[in-house]
Amino acid sequence: MSVMIRDVRTICCAPEGINLVTVKIETTEPGLYGIGCATFAHRHLAVVTAVEEYLKPFLIGKDVSYIEDIWQTAMGMSYWRNGPVLNNALSGVDMALWDIKGKMAGMPLYQLFGGKCREAVPCYTHAEGNSVEDAVEKVAYLKENGYRYVRAQAGGYGGNEMIHQPPEGALSGAYYDPKVYMRKTIKLFEKLRDTFGDELELCHDVHERLAPVDAVGFAKQMEQFQLFFLEDILPPEQVGWFERIRSQTVTPLAMGELFNNPNEWMDLIKNRRIDYIRVHLSQIGGITPARKLIALCDAFGVRTAWHGPVDLTPVGHAVNAHLDISSPNFGIQEWSDSICGFFADRNPEALEEIFPGMPKVKQGYIYLNDKPGIGVDINEEAAGKFPCSSEVVTWSWMLPKLPDGTSVRP
Ligand SMILES: O=C(O)[C@@H](O)[C@H](O)[C@H](O)CO
Ligand SMILES: [Mg+2]
């Protein structure tokens, strides 16, 4: 007997002060439902509207087993497509349908994807220091906690330091000086290699804010530290520069957390200009497109390193891990541990209460439970205790500025 979609809705919560969006799909089968991640933290109400006003009327009454067809139709039915709002909305639906399929099969998602390639998922987390010394201490702490891969940053994205003062009347923003940032980061990695030798795999996130020619030079200078990867060295608008970066250095390159459209990654992958694809799964539309991306990358020797930031629900983190554990070309998984990141006011207990079954990290590995589907549930009553904020942020790391006040797109 066919099982149909009976209801679709969004559940928003911010247990750690970061807006999270979950989609819940209920079916005609009593007690059978699925959940998915649709988190676009900075525009959550736009995603809610897309799900509840535009996708829901299309989905009610559809057979839950038609995931591919529903994905294709929902992607095309607005004619204009591939933006972060609509992709996140579709991702929430897509993941929820995969969750339902897993529950109907009585299998965890990774079984539907072909089974395990490894028993747990190696991950890295962030050592974010206010200074070089602070960052080195945090790396040491993470190493003691079993992490073998660490992403190290000093002073926030772009380093947040300047030699020259902004002009009078300069607007607020996250000021930084690209030259100061590059020199400071080189110092940090000199110190890290001095202190830890080859015992750790090190990553660094440029966070897109360099001028292209500086990015070429920086990737070359970082080569001596034998990074696991250098992340998002340029914004998505400048992917045309990767050919030049590639020809100048063997520093492994990871790219893509801001990508939405397959045309943004196609050339980079088929011309082998990056080593790790780092898309945010809900930003590309969920599991259905991610599985195609994995296969494409596998054919060209590119490995996966899905975006795993704080602005992702534990449902999204679990989906990352299901794909990771079952992909032959898995590279590494980002995990947002609360211990050494910038987000000091994190609330992991509340997160666990709202999302029972969320993946666990032990000694640098992510472990999934063996429940059918995604394996993570949502406690709506607990979620209700942490409402989202609709405040429009006008000062943050998302608004970087050069010393003279010029805005830079991250
Ligand atoms: O790679 C990362 O974890 C960062 O680039 C974060 O994704 C960003 O600050 C928004 O979540
Ligand atoms: Mg990043």
From TrEMBL:
Listed InterPro entries: DgoD-like, Enolase-like_C_sf, Enolase-like_N, Enolase_C-like, Mandel_Rmase/mucon_lact_enz_CS, Mandelate_racemase_C, Mandelate_racemase_N_dom
Q: Kindly state which keywords UniProt assigns to this record, in alphabetical order.
A: Magnesium, Metal-binding
Q: Which GO terms describe its molecular function?
A: magnesium ion binding
Q: Does the keyword Cell division apply?
A: no
**Which PROSITE patterns does the record cross-reference, listed alphabetically?**
MR_MLE_1
List the Pfam families hit by this protein, alphabetically: MR_MLE_C, MR_MLE_N
For this chain's UniProt record, which GO biological process terms are given? Answer: amino acid catabolic process
UniProt lists the family membership as follows: Belongs to the mandelate racemase/muconate lactonizing enzyme family. GalD subfamily.
Protein purpose:
Has no detectable activity with D-mannonate and with a panel of 70 other acid sugars (in vitro), in spite of the conservation of the residues that are expected to be important for catalytic activity and cofactor binding. May have evolved a divergent function.
The protein's name is Mandelate racemase/muconate lactonizing enzyme C-terminal domain-containing protein
Species? Hungatella hathewayi WAL-18680
